[in-house]
């Protein structure tokens, strides 16, 4: 009835071989949850039958999908919350003051997965930037064409919209469409999705004011991390801001960035090429969180990489 | 029932989608305790929830007693369960499916409260047009889910709560 | 921190209790809106910080409960999160307009519940220093 021990052992071995990720005993529920939709799509009654199918010559084509299903992280709206608080309290006011002449903000959501981060940013821009008459362009990229398509469609299952999307923003920007929720045309018109491999030379890209490169460097080795960060810096405005994931840092990887702590969050900025004044640091108004509550701690310190 | 349902906003595929979501959310918990309870009696658990208003009909769920016991243990993460637990858990499952189905309807309608019965045989059907049906598999047990459009000339009050 | 779990299904109360207890909440329970108001009255000196509110319940439904709580100044610090199978856009709007702060559609994963509490600042395991 549930996943058989031999089926679990096969899947654990497959994922360890192909992605160097270890699935310990006790993770059977995870295998069942992630592979169940694949089993149904293949017309098989349960995951054990699906795993048996995988081991057959005709079923081997599904192995890549299994590895992807078990190694892709679930992505949620307002993931980690803090970067978006800092975006609203500090970064947007700074950009509005700084890029006055252009009245346009250009943003990159790198490794965008199914688009939740790009549309989270779009919601905040719709709230805080668009009403001031500014244009916003968000380029969302992912290595997987399937994720790029999902981002373009902007349709999410009920379980997906349940992940961290605040109800007031959900009713404002989404409509039900059958069993799914469709993001509004306003947000979709801000987001342009395309495929891009971060580990290879970049195609032609605009100059970005903001880059969200979160929870992706952790998958790369040190030289690749350095390569990604220096390519990213070349497509960023010198006044721009780079957002990394909570467990990621430019420190010790690429010293051409300088780091600014805002509360518990660290913003990275491209370092000027020649000695000169650093871009002034923040903020232009009293910091507020998304919900209007004051940030508990604001500018704690400014670090400079030597 | 040989009546063809009029075009409906609810399809078998929709029921499968909702079934997957219920499975993912409530029925795949880890650390499931092993049971020492004897196998459940034979028979069936039948749950129904009414929708009234712009669209009037009901959603039914039918599962074997053995299957209902397994689903109840998974939801409660409990080893020992009572018949009342089974009634409540299966009722909540049809409530969740029913609310999601109602969300697909174009007309504004209200959801009733779940009714749960156990039968020795699959439950008798009442005067209604089957809109769609899906055979879900939850925790290895077949679960029969159907959406019914109540016949409009029915003068008896529907399920009320 | 205490949370009041309001649902006519004791299965659902148990699901929510388990997930909230794991986060460190103490749990009060009620099977309908009327019972929930009585629980709040009995804990008037220290009301729970959070109430999860089912919509369709006998005696008093969740929407009426939300309106009743919002009419009571002494209960204004209770955060109200609908947890219901009602899933139409219009229903969510209605609940928010009545004074609910958040809305979680059943079925939901425990991760989704934690996300909502994180956003509300009501996850005891991630309280801001």
What name does the CATH topology of one domain in chain C carry? Rossmann fold
Name the helix and strand elements of chain C from N-terminus to C-terminus, one letter apiece: EHEHEHEHEH
Q: At the first level of CATH, what is the class of one domain in chain C?
A: Alpha Beta
From the spread of the alpha carbons, the general shape of chain B counts as globular
N-to-C span of chain C: 16 Å
What is the top-level CATH class of chain B? Alpha Beta
Q: What is Rg of chain C?
A: 13 Å
Q: What's the total count of β strands of chain C? A: 5
What is the H level of CATH, i.e. the homologous superfamily of one domain in chain C? Answer: Response regulator
CATH topology of chain B: Chemotaxis protein chec
Into which percent range does the helicity of residues of chain C fall? Answer: 40-55%
Structural class of chain B: alpha+beta
Oligomer: heterotrimer
Largest interface: B-C, 26 and 21 residues
Can you give a write-up of this model?
The complex is a heterotrimer of chains A (306), B (161) and C (129). With 306 residues, chain A is α/β, with parallel strands linked by helices. Chain A has two domains: 5-71, Chemotaxis receptor methyltransferase CheR, N-terminal domain (Chemotaxis Receptor Methyltransferase Cher, domain 1); 82-302, Vaccinia Virus protein VP39 (Rossmann fold, 3-Layer(aba) Sandwich). Chain A has helices at residues 5-19, 28-41, 47-54, 63-71, 82-98, 116-128, 145-153, 158-162, 167-173, 185-190, 222-234, and strands at 104-110, 135-142, 155-157, 174-177, 180-183, 191-195, 208-213, 236-244, 257-262, 265-270, 301-302. Chain A has a five-stranded parallel sheet with strand order 6-2-1-7-8. Chain B has helices at residues 12-26, 65-76, 83-102, and strands at residues 44-53, 57-64, 109-111, 115-119, 128-138, 141-150. Chain B has three helices and six strands. Chain B has 161 residues and is an alpha+beta fold. Chain B is globular and about 40 Å long. Chain C has 129 residues and is of the alpha/beta class. Chain C contains five helices and five strands; from the N terminus they run βαβαβαβαβα. The interface between B and C is medium-sized, with 26 and 21 residues.
């Amino acid at each position: 009835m549930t996943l058989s021990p031999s089926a679990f052992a096969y899947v654990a071995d497959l994922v360890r071989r192909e992605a160097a990720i270890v699935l310990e005993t006790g993770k059977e529920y995870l295998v069942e949850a992630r592979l169940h939709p694949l089993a149904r799509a293949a017309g098989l009654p349960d995951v054990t039958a699906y795993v048996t199918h995988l081991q057959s010559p005709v079923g081997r084509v599904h192995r890549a999908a299994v590895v992807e299903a078990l190694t892709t992280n679930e992505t949620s709206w307002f993931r980690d919350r803090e970067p978006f608080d800092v975006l609203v309290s500090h970064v947007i006011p700074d950009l509005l003051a700084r890029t006055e002449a252009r009245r346009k903000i250009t943003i990159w959501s790198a490794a965008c997965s199914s688009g939740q981060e790009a549309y989270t940013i779009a919601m905040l821009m719709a709230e805080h930037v668009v009403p001031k008459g500014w244009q916003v362009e968000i380029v969302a990229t992912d290595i997987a064409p399937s994720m790029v398509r999902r981002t373009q469609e902007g349709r999410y299952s009920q379980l997906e919209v349940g992940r961290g999307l605040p109800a007031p923003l959900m009713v404002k920007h989404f409509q039900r469409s059958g069993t799914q929720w469709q993001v509004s045309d306003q947000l979709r018109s801000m987001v342009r999705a395309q495929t891009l491999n971060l580990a290879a030379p970049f195609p032609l890209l605009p100059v970005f004011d903001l880059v969200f490169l979160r929870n992706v460097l952790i998958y790369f080795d040190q030289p690749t991390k350095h390569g990604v960060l220096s390519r990213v810096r070349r497509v960023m405005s010198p006044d721009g801001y780079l957002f990394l994931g909570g467990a990621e840092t430019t420190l010790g990887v690429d010293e051409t960035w300088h780091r600014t702590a805002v509360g518990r969050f660290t913003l990275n900025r491209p370092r000027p090429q020649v000695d000169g004044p650093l871009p002034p640091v923040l903020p232009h108004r009293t910091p507020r969180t998304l919900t209007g509550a004051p940030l508990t701690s604001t500018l704690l310190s400014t670090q400079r990489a030597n | 029932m040989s009546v063809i349902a009029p075009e409906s906003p609810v399809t078998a595929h929709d029921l499968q989608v909702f079934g997957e979501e219920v499975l993912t959310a409530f029925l795949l918990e880890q650390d499931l305790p092993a049971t020492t309870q004897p196998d459940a009696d034979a028979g069936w658990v039948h749950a129904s929830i009414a929708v009234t208003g712009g669209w009037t009909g009901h959603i039914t769920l039918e599962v074997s007693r053995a299957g209902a016991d397994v689903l109840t243990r998974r939801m409660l993460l409990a080893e020992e369960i009572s018949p009342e637990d089974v009634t409540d858990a299966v009722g909540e499952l049809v409530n969740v499916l029913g609310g999601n189905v109602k969300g697909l309807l174009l007309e504004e309608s209200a959801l009733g409260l779940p009714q749960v019965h156990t039968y020795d045989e699959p439950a008798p059907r009442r005067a209604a047009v089957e809109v769609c049906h899906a055979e879900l598999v939850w925790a290895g047990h077949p679960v029969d889910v159907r959406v019914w459009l109540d016949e409009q000339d029915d003068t008896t009050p529907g399920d009320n709560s | 921190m205490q949370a009041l779990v309001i649902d006519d299904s004791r299965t659902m109360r148990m699901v929510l209790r388990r997930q909230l207890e794991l986060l460190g909440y103490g749990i009060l329970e009620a099977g309908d809106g009327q019972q929930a108001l009585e629980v709040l009255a009995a804990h008037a000196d220290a009301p729970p910080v959070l109430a999860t509110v089912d919509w369709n319940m006998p005696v008093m439904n969740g929407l009426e409960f939300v309106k009743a709580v919002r009419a009571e100044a002494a209960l204004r610090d209770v955060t109200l999160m609908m947890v219901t199978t009602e899933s139409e856009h219009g229903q969510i709007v209605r609940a928010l307009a009545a004074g609910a702060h958040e809305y979680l559609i059943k079925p939901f994963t425990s991760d989704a519940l934690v996300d909502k509490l994180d956003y509300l600042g009501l996850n005891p395991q991630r309280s801001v220093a």
